[in-house]
Structures
1.
Amino acid sequence: MIIGIPRALIYWKQPYFWESFFENLGFKVLLSPPTNKEIVEMGVKVADPETCFSNKVYWGHLLWLDGKCDLIFVPRLKANEEKLEYCPKFFGLPDLAQILVKTPILTETFDRRKEETKKALERLGKKLKKNKEEIKKAAGTAFLKEKELKEKEEQEFFKKIQSKKQKLVLVSHPYNLYDDYVNLRMKEKLEKLGAEPIFIDEVPIKSQISNLKYRASINGSEGEEEDEVLFASQNLNWPKFHWEFGKELMERIEVALNYRIAGAIEISSFGCGCDAVIKEFVEKTFKQNRIPFLYLMIDEQTGEAGIQTRLEAFMDTI
Amino acid sequence: MKKPIITFARWGNYTIAFKTLFEQLGLEVIPPEKTNSQTIAEGAKIAPEMYCFPMKVTLGNYLPALKKGANTIFMVQNVGGSCRQRYYGAIQEKVLKETGHDINFLDFRAAPKDIYSAIKKISNASFWQIIKAGRFFFKKLRLIEKIEKVAQYYRPREIEKGMTDKILTESFSKLEELKKEKDFPKLKREIFKKLSEIKIEENKDLPKVALVGEIYTVCDPTINFEVESKLGREGVEVHREMDITYHLKKLIFPWKDWIIQKKINPYLKSTVGGHGRDAIYEMLHYIKEDFDGIIHLLPFQCMPEVTVRPILEKIHRESGIPFLSISLDEQTAEAGIDTRLEAFIDVVRNYHQSKKSKI
């Protein structure tokens, strides 16, 4: 049996996990290809005109998978381990997907406010006629793989932060950062302009970093000061977000501010309701810390030339 | 602390009831300006561009009141659950402070306990005074909603066109002026007497249209270009379930959500924030009640309503009921809405006729 996974939106929240989970269970996994022009066009055609660009891209991936596999996996992500909610547009994804495609949708609700992920995975396994043992093993291996990748990412960050080039922080959702077609190869463009782009996802969250590594990386100081001293100098204020990415983004920015960054760019897909809120506080935080800030909106009509000009101009101001 | 002079978010005719609430607490109130194209433009100018429409509108309503001397703003958060409404207060406070307004912002959760403590803090009113003010508030609120419902019935049936709306406006301004609770029953009788004197054609066969969608746009006639009375004057009976009482009932009786979820299970198996689920539930309900059309009102890019719109469209395709979805924002023009409504009314009439001829 082939299980299809759209390579967009929620896929990037947990890349590789689902792929490896289903493969460990003995299924064949069909991942839709990286976003391309046809996929975006397909998505835009069927999507509600007012929904966000990222959602439209997702519909495109779904349509690409339609008919090519036996099941399409669309999880219903509701709340994460900190009991914070995901974007409300994710709540209805499986239902809307079912309207769109003929292939049956495989779905399960993940709500950490109510239960452990393990239970949800077991229910998912039941739908696929797999017993608890098999699920446990498959999930275990998949989690390990995910952890490995995260650690690698963290090391990359410390390598990047030592770089002599001008460091730019790219603030956005993972589905905008890692999808090269969607963000118009922003990373490549910035590298060509001589900058060192750092994805906000790569910045470790305060609690995640082991103290030693953390202190050693800050200008080589031996860590005589307390962490509090480091953070007290900043002027931070934002409301308590009930969205997981809101809290996460702001916390990561808080960490990023401890390093010498030349500028920050926020990428937001057109129609993203959550970004309308978060952008205000992201912008405020960077401005208060006197870091140049650029806000870019992307959608299906964004032209590459326009983005290029704006990036060049931004690089000149830094 | 300075003496608080209150202003608050405007919300259609309900503004009257809110004004009374604060006045009864012994607070000085400057009501927010009535929504017009200018307040909308002013609000949109300083609001974040991508934010949803009701936030820009309410922001625009504060500005004239702030100029007149108001220094404290009341804002309820958490009306919408998972959606952006939660951050209205935070964003409005930020925006207003950035534009140089020295204000005290009261942002609190819409739970009875929080509302009580917020009111207590600002007004120093006694427990009984708050209870009494609350009671008067609810009386006015219920009356406003009732008058609106009655008007929905009278409008398409009136013989002298425009009579209902005239009486409605008069009644609302009288209600706004009413300060003492003991005069309330008299005014209530007076209003209903006047309404019952409207000459109407009984037993008229009328097509029925329901309004569903986002609560603010559905309930505020100044935002939705008076869809309700426009349809009424064209001889269409309008219904809507969405109002403050409906929302409060859902807050007080959480199982109502559970019932709604059960009804819409074939279409959507989860909440999507705001009143997304309610729109589906209402649409299914109205189809069962043999309505002739559904109008879906939403602010441009409203997250919950945009999420459920494909589902509403699916129901529309399955049942064949005429369906019109109107998104509103600061760039919506009245002429455009009028044209779409006129065309829609034709479709509704045809649908109504064809249903009759089948029987």
2.
Amino acid sequence: MPLKQSWGSRIFDSVNATLLIIFAVLTVIPFIYAIAGSFATQKELLEKGFILFPTEFTLDAYKYIFSTQTLVRSLLVTVYITVVGTLINIFFTCLMAYPLARKDMDFRKPILMLVVFTMLFSGGMIPTFLVVKQLGMIDTYWSLLIPGAISAFNLIIMRNFFQQLPDGLEEAAKIDGCNDLGIFFRIVLPLSMPAIATFSLFYAVGHWNTFFNAVLYINDNTKWPIQVLLRQIVILASGGIGDSTVMEADYVAPPEQSVKMAVIVVSTLPILLVYPFLQKHFAKGVLLGSVKG
Amino acid sequence: MQTSLEARVAASSAPRSKLLMGRLVRNRWLYFMVLPGLLYFLIFKYWPMYGIFIAFKDFQPFLGFWDSPFVGLKHFERLFGDSNFLVLFRNTLILAAYNILFFFPLPILIALMLNELRHEFTKRTIQTLIYIPHFMSWVVVVGIAYIFLTTEGGIVNELLERYGGEKINFLVSNEWFRTLITAEVIWKETGWGTIIFLAALAGVDTQLYEAARMDGANRLRQLWHITLPAIRSTIIILLILRLGHFLDTGFEQIFLMLNAMNREVGEVFDTYVYSVGISQGQYSFSTAVGLFKSIIGLILVVVSNYLAKKFGEEGIY
């Protein structure tokens, strides 16, 4: 009887593991295909159709896209938005979360309610657009940095985190003659580095993936972040990247599919690079999120 | 009498207000710190809420907010009388139904399967792989879908043709739109969706399994009688919350997948607001459409939160 049970159990385990492995492989195969295709020659892509590893390795697609001003400029724009945007997010989120975590502050409940309400109801796309327009932010990078400066959700999680810090630290600092600003910058922030790291990663991924706000607020295509350019090249396919500077007489442009894949790889790579760090943090982040607000 | 009453009121409230004043002064740095954030919420969240009033006006940018004529419910009448309205509603409902039917159960299934996996390293590796797509932008996900499905050299159509089939124009067809939307959501979010269920499963007392084994329960019976009941309340609460966001079909994704050939089945409230408001400049009408959606959404969220809370309290016993 126990033997039989364990056989059934073993079959169950192996079927289960096999199905899960198939699912995991199916999840990543599209990325692997895109990466492989970006390094493949046109001949191989056409003949084999589906490849997971190119036999003939070529960097033509990358040479091509990096010879264009458009792509490099878009990458720089995105790097700028990601770095500056994340700094703005973290600074203003923490700065507002800390006072709201202090029990001795008056009016923190109404302020908090003001914040929570924005999670339930919003002015919507058009009124927000009109405000951004009225502030003169259209076609400036400010429109990608400021309108999303504080996420109400992250603010509340951050506040909960600050509330868990022991009160004694603040008392001690006060006795030593520190004011609240000093307590915040010299004691609270250094103690909160793990939480700040987590939030930075999530905010940064959000900025790197910025797409719709740029569609809405940025008409000037020299200011497009990478995701908007990616859409232009891959989805709208409006002539691809027009300003390649490779101008040799016998030059043959790399296959369109490879170029598209290379652009996808370039716009995905930074996220894959920070992914191991993200993974270390996000289980914690999700758990933080479940702490009641 | 009058003066003495005033004096009494003043006397009784003086210490309290003094205390409040004292606290305000003492905590001045805290207020200083809260100020930028508060201004942010007022300018970028509450000012647009105030701007909603243009839904009741004929807003013309050169006249400005105040001087644009008030027209009452004109834009709402137009919305409800418009044949587009039913189309938008139908598309939204069908996409949401697809999502709940085909996507919602999958993270639960995968979480249960992962939970049964004894080999820790395999489990970790699988988790690492299936979380990846969540961090990709919708542009990347839709972009990869385009690369696979395009009729001009896309791998799926190449293979179809090679094995004697005919090319299918997936990306510009009414029939495939909803399937593609749902498939992309499944690919991007199934793995990530398992996290919350895995957290719930981690809380199950392992002694229950031992006791069940003693009683001769096999793995499927253990799954049915111990594991599933353990995450039942999580499932129900998430389902209720999902219903609360019924109208929130993934905007960026649909916006990216939408084109002239599939607008009939793909246009939802948000994309309609964009094309009428931003592309055609009908600010007032599109604000009215957005407001209608926001209000229905608010009601759904409040009701579903109430239900979830009620259920959560009952679930604890």
3.
Amino acid sequence: MIRPWLGIVIIAIVLMILPFFTDALFGRGWVRIIDFAMLYIMLALGLNIVVGYAGLLDLGYIAFFAVGAYCYALLNSPQLGLHLPFWIVLPLGALLACIFGVLLGAPTLRLRGDYLAIVTLGFGEIIRIFLNNLNAPINITNGPQGISMIDPIHIGEISLNKTYEIFGLVFSPVHLHYYLFLGFTLLVIVISLRLQDSRIGRAWVALREDEIAAKAMGISAAKIKLLAFAMGATFGGLAGGLFAGFQGFVSPESFSLTESITVLCMVVLGGMGNIRGVLLGGMLLVALPEALRHGSGPAQQLLFGKTLVDPESLRMLLFGLTLIIVMLWKPAGLWPSNQRKSELTANTGTIARAQQDS
Amino acid sequence: MTIPELKPLLHVCDLKVSYGGIHALKGINFHIAPGELIALIGSNGAGKTTTLKAIAGLIPWSAGKIHYRDMSLQHVAAHQLIREGLALVPEGRGVFAQLTVEENLRMGAYSRSDKSTIANDLQDIYGLFPRLAERHMQLAGTLSGGEQQMMALARALMSRPKLLMLDEPSMGLAPQMIAKVFETIRNISTQGVSILLVEQNARLALEVAQRGYVMERGLITISDNAANLLDSDVVRRAYLGD
């Protein structure tokens, strides 16, 4: 029983020193990228509940991120002149996203597959377009200009937007946000794990596998599906609030369809329904484009002596190519939950053999 | 309509169901007394599965009545029925392939909240189905067809049903396995569970049942004791292949 604890201790130490290590080795920009990666991981884990656990294809998931972000922005900026504390605004944003999740879920309960995807896609766009246009007749969202000068996150006396020095270690804003986001990411991971192994988690799987049989078991399809939408949306809203506080600025642009697709890619690429897979997918899909952005320019210089293709467009090209290759090579995702299947059958095989021997 | 001697557990009265313009059920009447094993036989498209689905609350019906233990099922949702002791094993077994055998069985007790008795029942089930005990940690999708059918039966039993509705339990199984499944069905019946068995394999169904109903194009055309049906010339020619 020593080894699992050792593993956890090592992971904890790595996570604690990661921002300093990254800062020293790659520069502060990469710490910021890790912060964003964690926001995306929270989103991906939220979407994983809807898509991975409950099997409901949601193409407008970023709308809940937007709801959380705008909730935070409106209650914490000169836009409405409100400056509410972080611990009130963040749960409020998550709750509001949860309500939107139920609002979207309720009319789509009878829809499946492609039809559900189209409706959720539409919902995502409706939210974005609303945010874009709610600047007239009464200016609520400030339209396409977005809301700026959002108050930085304050936790007690600590402002996450200042630099602190403790025992010679410099904690810059990106470091401070790192630890806050890490805390929330771990929370989301723990909730996801608990859900997976719960009565509700099994009800989601049952519903995804065979709706008729699930109903015959006494599972209320409507209630359980709404719960998936609500839980997923809550995580999205949470990530949204953190995003607004971190960025200090939100605009409708950040919540386009592409973002929904990116989060969905993280879930699918990593392996639907498997938390470790989703974590991997999230990290890869944030790190990969950044690495390509920074790497493709110098690489071209090295190969051809000049920059032939704009790194920005090459980045998306390579990104798309990578996705296609991975999906061809590992259609179930990089780290699919089916692994459980092979583990289990292998185990039962040995048990069966052992019984035959005895 | 004949009035059954025993107070029926399930009473279907002039039930009509239509899909779009097609009348799948054109007014059928039948009943099941407590403890009875009833076979509903008929060819493909006769309306057998539709009847089950209507009782199970999975499709709406346009006219008629379904009474279960003096309760009208008109406005009862599918997922509420199991709490009333009405369990369905759907066509194609409906196993949850990505859950383990044990998780599947526990799913059968989803509607129950009595934790300690559920644990006891699970052990009883494993006693009844040793094959499932051996494979309790295996994903249900990796079981053979026969094992899956056994598991579906076991799962339904985990809800402690009063009336068990089985839709084509022999479908897609090897003859040897079919015999085992029907043996199990007979066992369940002797323990006092009422069973409504829908089968295309008429001979097998009538051999285990006490009474049978023959369905044709949305109507019940013959209703009699199972033994009489097995002897009847009409049934033999049409459904038993003699």
4.
Amino acid sequence: MLVENIKLCLTGLMANKIRTFLTMLGIIIGIAAMIAIMTVSDAMNSSVMNSMGSMGADKIEVFIMQKGYDESTSREMKTKDYFTDEMLDDLKQTFGNRISGIALSKDIGSSRIEKGKSYANIQLKGLNPTALKSENLSMLKGRSITEKDEETLSKIALVSDKYVEKIFGGDEKAALGSEIEVLVDNKYYTYTIVGVYQYIDSGMSAGFSQNDISTNVYIPFAVAKMQVEKGDLYDEFSLKAGEGTDPDTLCFEVQNYINTKYYEDNDAYESYAYSMKAQLKQMNSMLSTQKNAFMAIGAIALLVGGIGVMNIMIVSITERTREIGTRKALGATNNDIRLQFIIEAMVICLLGGIIGIITGLLFGMAATKVMGYQGTASVAGILACVLFSMAFGLFFGYYPANKAAKMNPIEALRYE
Amino acid sequence: MNDIIMSARDIRKSYNVGTENELEILHGIDLDVHKGEFVSIVGSSGSGKSTFMNILGLLDRPTSGAYTLNSIDVSKSTDDELSHIRNREIGFVFQTYNLIPRTSAIKNVELPMLYARVPERERRERAEMLLELVGMKERMHHTPDELSGGQKQRVAIARSLVNHPSMILADEPTGALDSATGRIVMDLFHKLHKENGITIVLITHSNELAEETERVVTLKDGHIITERAGLRYAG
């Protein structure tokens, strides 16, 4: 009976293609909007979370901030305002193994290396071993920077495979051992390339053309320190919480410790620490709020679509009053009639839902592609939409179907 | 007599029961129909024949009285039970054919079997057989709007027979047809009656048609006024 009803309903819908399509349109648009939003926001979410997560949830960033927002205390940073190596050593001693490492980096600057017609944009960075480790580089060729390089102040560099592709035509062997000369602030720096790492698109370079993407050139931290002004002064550093230490608590304690000991008397600056864990949490809730807001808009579209379905169903039932009367005379029970129209509404909504899912996926994928994210279809989302549209059919089909079921057969048969 | 297939006793029907303007349309009608009989119920408009037909067809309930169909006392049946009894015991033929639009003739004929939960193959076979009986087998895949009035009515007659009903209830079956086509439909009823022993109750306002049947029951103002053999019945 169910199968018969579905078959019957499909032939009915096929016989009235335009009306069927118009009825479905609301559902199609609603579901498509939901799916597109889900796809885009899931892609954004996972991209942001990935790039933040790769930095490590146990990471704590510490930097220098102005005290208050009062203009009168505002001034340029002086030597005494910066973090120093002594302070960092003190931190290590005080917190012991609750801090598993302190990551330091120096940005020397950005530059463009040219060779013939091709060029590569680079960022020159000095990273200490802890910082380098948290970059999670996967080495394709050669070696990484070691403690020994730091001690001996080796002028070596790690470059990305993208750089090798542009400058050496992808020949990693040729790259190893050759020199890289970087011009930053009218000064030339020369390093020997000892390793090639794999560049990973973090999604942060969205909007840049592939050619203009800037990749990092890493050099030993000790070398960088010597080569820039104020090399032993830091305006930020990050630390990793040790095994079993809650980053949020540690973050709070570190900030307190530094401020009490070193910045109590400072008139303009103090330290500020935040943990990646808290940041992740905040980001997560922000993204999900945003997603929910968009979903609500999609849901409104869907609701309007559902009301459209109900409207057409009511019209259709009025149009088919005679048919309903006939069916009743021929032995259809009220339940048979109710079932018939509920199935019809559900089939309309389900078909609309499926078309909507396909449309939504196409739009969502296209949008994520344009935005440079990795788009994946959310299976749970699609399933939810399928179930949701069937539920919609049931909900908005029930009232008209019930109306049809309760028709008086005599009046229905007489209906002109 | 145990070959009585349908028996109505003291059927009364009132509207607006319990209010000031209570109106009794049927004033206690007694009617028996025997198995294999071809009976016509004739009356002008306002005679109560439509009301009586609705009661005979289980589309409406009498205010009082007893109605037995194929030994089933239907007075106390629920709506769903009435649907099932209609489905199995009564074959409706309407003046306006009432075929389901945009649905092929064979699907239309299968419909009552669908509600009787007859398996698909059996449905198809029986529908084809009956369409052949009414001479519509060639057009079984046509939809109603591709058929003429007479053809539609023949499909409707096939549909009325599918569940082996106790009786066919034909309400002005030739009312919308020209006389030549109407003749074909009436001949079909006679053939079904004679050759297949089908019980038929014909409701009509036309005395001329009524006289062709085995027994003519004349209704006036909610009473049966005469009951006699048809004058031109060719038994």
